[in-house]
């Protein structure tokens, strides 16, 4: 049985967390949380200590992404799932176009497509493991896609859509990309994410860098007679964010660990350092798979492979689930594939907090399991 296989200790990584989210939390973040235990935690989110914490997060993100003048960091409770509905209510004027090439891009597409006050969305799909490209379309006022599809390990460029109607917005889901993949946020109007991936915090919060055009769009829609639930009101989120707070009570521990991670990233060299580090880690997985007799990268086109989520298929002679079971029994966890994808594969996160040498150790552990199952 794979559960009874013992991997020699000298092969094991120093930290065995390789999950696609929630992700590995650095010790420094835990230290920051302990320090906040008698100061920030358990205090009002409307008072200066917590508002200053939110301000630090906002300013740190503007620095990390080198945001152009006029961009603002907006945040709200509910995670990316809540933001999809918030955007459907408060950012799309009439019609959206979505790229749907995995589970998470399809969810935002569904939110706008089903909204009774919007025209049917234009949804461009491609086979799992590949990505489509946006197409300029008359009448579309918002183009949306994920920068990184967490379910499949496909990454997509962030860039303006040539020929799009004047004033159309580019809205990018960066939940598993932000802080780990290179981006020029000036190529987007809303670059949004939750903090449980590269930012190594907890879920339940959404953050977004808004361009002046996106802020103006939200203001204009809010002035119409469109009914919006208070919790999903984008103008409310924008107005509260300008005061360094959220509409309703956030998780303070999430803010503490998020702020520490942002500070760490900026101190290490910012996004250039982070994206180089994840590229190093991902290359170790892909190079290992390319040299293996039984493994291969699931994403065939190297230009479409993610540097923060590596998906590796195995030959039919190998039971990938037995590999992940053996790894888990030895403290190497969360390498299972995305459940709905149904592939004989491992999904390995190479987020920025994960040590590249631990990624190499993981590949050696997989080899050991393959040899000894």
Automatic annotation (TrEMBL):
Q: Which GO terms describe its molecular function?
A: alanine-glyoxylate transaminase activity; L-serine-pyruvate transaminase activity; O-phospho-L-serine:2-oxoglutarate aminotransferase activity
Its needed co-factors are: pyridoxal 5'-phosphate
Residues annotated as coiled-coil are none
Q: In which pathway does it act?
A: Amino-acid biosynthesis; L-serine biosynthesis; L-serine from 3-phospho-D-glycerate: step 2/3
- What Pfam family is a match for this entry? Aminotran_5
Gene Ontology terms describing biological process: glycine biosynthetic process, by transamination of glyoxylate; L-serine biosynthetic process; pyridoxine biosynthetic process
Q: Which protein family is named in the record?
A: Belongs to the class-V pyridoxal-phosphate-dependent aminotransferase family. SerC subfamily.
User: Could you tell me what this protein does?
Assistant: Catalyzes the reversible conversion of 3-phosphohydroxypyruvate to phosphoserine and of 3-hydroxy-2-oxo-4-phosphonooxybutanoate to phosphohydroxythreonine.
Q: Could you tell me what this protein is called?
A: phosphoserine transaminase
Q: Which organism is it from?
A: Zhihengliuella flava
Higher taxonomy: Bacteria, Bacillati, Actinomycetota, Actinomycetes, Micrococcales
